[in-house]
Amino acid sequence: MFRHAGLILLGVLAVVASASADVRARVDRPSVDLNESFILELTVDTNVDIEPDLTVLDEKFYRGQLSQLSNTSIINGQISRSRTWSIALMAKSTGRQEIPAITVGNEKSAPISITINEPTNAPPGEADVFITSEVDQTEAYVQSQILYRYKVYRAVATRQEGRRDPIFAGAEVLYERAGDERSYEAILNGRAYNVLERVLAIYPQASGEFSISPARFEARVLRDGRITGRKVFESEGHSIKVLPIPAPPADYPNAAWLPARDVQLSEEWSREPDRLAAGEPVTRKVTVSALGQIETQIPAIDPPEIDGMNVYADRPDLSREFEAEGIRGIRRDQYAMIGTRGGAVKVPAVKVPWFDIEAGEWRVAQLPGRTIDVAAPLVAPVPLVAGPEPTVAPAEAAEPEVVYVANDFWKLVSQLIGGVWLLTLLAWWWSSREREQEQREPEAPPVYKQQAKFIKTAKKAAAQNDKARVRAALIDWARLQWPDDAPRSIGEIASRVSAPLSDELRVLSATSYGMGDKEWNGRELAKALRSITIAEQDEELDFGSPLPPLMPPGT
Questions:
Q1: How far is the C-alpha of 421 from the C-alpha of 379, rounded, in Å?
Q2: How far apart (Å, rounded) are the C-alpha atoms in residues 510 and 192?
Q3: 179: left (phi over 0), alpha (psi -120 to 50) or beta
Q4: What distance in Å separates the CA atoms of residue 204 and residue 145, rounded to the nearest whole number?
Q5: DSSP 267-302
Q6: Residue among 102, 155, 103, 107 nearest 131 (CA)
Q7: What is the tens place of the pLDDT at every residue in 55-66?
Q8: Which candidate among 33, 293, 347, 380 keeps its CA 20 to 30 Å from the CA of 221?
Q9: What does DSSP say about strands 37-44 and 23-27: parallel, antiparallel, or unpaired?
Q10: 201 with 327: CB under 8 angstroms?
Q11: Which positions ≥6 away from 95 have C-beta within 8 Å?
């Protein structure tokens, strides 16, 4: 009886723990146009059975397809599970909008702000496919960042696609991908488009002017069940003026050139430096992050010269992050610092001059200096006394001889650490034996069986005109079909399969957004799901040979 009561109590505690799991929310883009969709992800750190309350989104956003992903990982014998919901959203109005807190069980996610801009692109006439491009500034400084963005809009299925980044002429430039390529849906003049977006960060290396050629998209278009010949679509070109490097500030005549939008300085200590004793090492990490600059452009911070302390520099750690305003380069310099004496030790301030490209003026990021009270050495001098003191005249008296006696404290500490290490190895070996003897979890069914299950679910939902279940099942199927580049929308799946399934998926995608529900009959989609053909991709294209014009002269 008590055993059953204990099991029931454990079950109740497990339910309570699941209901109070931490909820994290994020969006795939911090800034979108009014007619563009974006993805909201909700993640809990355990595999709960409770569904999130998404009705709080309906006041400010249209909801699209919803997909779910459960993840299980085993690290050092510890099993951790999580569950993620991905919701496609489209805003109802422009401006700074707040995604409210979403409840999962007894916990809520933190609110998220997102910027909704006025629509900037419109299709040229009734174009089925077109490409646009834009730059965030037409005048920039040498080695400063210029964001170039181009988008490919498709309202129909395409085959044998190929994209080419623009060509730069007139000056030497470096460019980097500013994040991963994005895919989402957009509604233009009431028509649904699948959008592929790529962002480049450009860094001109000399003053003057340079031009950006049009970006190009090539494909064969599927229309009314027929496929056309290869067509070429191009964006507009751009011209950029590059300003020379201004003179450094008077207070920092040797300042390195660091153009950025924002520069931040921070530090970390391996332990509280005020508890440092002479002869004990402490590690200090100084981090410089520059928005609008790559990590290799951030100047090195020389090790400070400190009276009463030896400083040894380690190799820097370089990394980058992607934000809405481009690349944020990060440089972390690490120093080992050892006090050589007791008393007050002054650590100087760290100053990094940088040029604010938005304000057009020099600024200085800095860490304030600090004073560290270093304790005296733990080993104290002990006088050595041998026999009675001889009688000497005051004039001949001398200072007593002093010697240092070794202290066994550190020897004992080393032996203790060694014993703990051996016990840790023994415990790890014993636990690994127990884990090997444990019964393994049953293997997951083969991928093709999982895919067949999702397709069966999608066909059944389509026959019942249940759009939400169709979208969720097809997203799950596509995640298994393309595990390294899983599509996140029905429109993207449509671009990867052949007709008639691609045409029916685009019809489904077009009815997923807008005011109120649009009529949709899933019978044709259920028929199309009986046979699925994956579209062939042609990634390697020869752009060297000129192509004939789309419209011959005189037509």
A1: 26
A2: 5
A3: left
A4: 8
A5: EEESS-GGG-BTT-EEEEEEEEEEETB-GGGSPPPP
A6: 155
A7: 889 888 888 878
A8: 33
A9: antiparallel
A10: yes
A11: 115, 116
Residues 382, 371: Cα–Cα separation, whole Å? 30
Question: How many whole angstroms separate alpha carbon 186 and alpha carbon 193?
Answer: 5
Question: Which residue(s) pair with 483 in the sheet?
Answer: none
- Summarised one tens digit per residue, pLDDT across range 74-83 is 766 677 788 8
Q: Is 396 helix (H, G, I), strand (E, B) or coil?
A: helix
Residue 345 phi/psi, 5-degree rounding, is -125, 125
pLDDT tens for 217-244 read 988 888 777 887 888 888 999 999 999 9
Beta strands in 348-397 (DSSP E): 350-356, 361-367, 370-374, 382-383
Side by side, the strands of the sheet bearing 139-141 are 139-141, 238-243, 208-212, 168-169
* Structural domains of the chain in order of their starting residue, each with its CATH number: 17-117 (2.60.40), 129-243 (2.60.40.740), 259-374 (2.60.40), 447-528 (no CATH)
**If residue 65 lies in a helix (H) or strand (E), which one and from where to where?**
strand 61-75
Mean pLDDT of the chain: 80
**pLDDT given for residue 377 in this prediction:** 72
Predicted local confidence at residue 320, as pLDDT: 93
Q: pLDDT of 26-49, one tens digit each?
A: 888 888 887 778 889 888 887 677
CA dist 413 and 427 (Å) reads 21
The model's pLDDT over 364-406, given as tens digits with 9 standing for 90+, comes to 999 998 888 888 876 554 454 554 554 444 444 444 444 444 4
Please tell me the distance from the alpha carbon of residue 144 to that of residue 159, in angstroms, as a whole number.
38
Q: Which residues contact 78 (CB under 8 A, 6 or more apart)?
A: none
Q: Which of 115-124, 242-251, 339-348, 480-489 has the lowest mean pLDDT?
A: 115-124
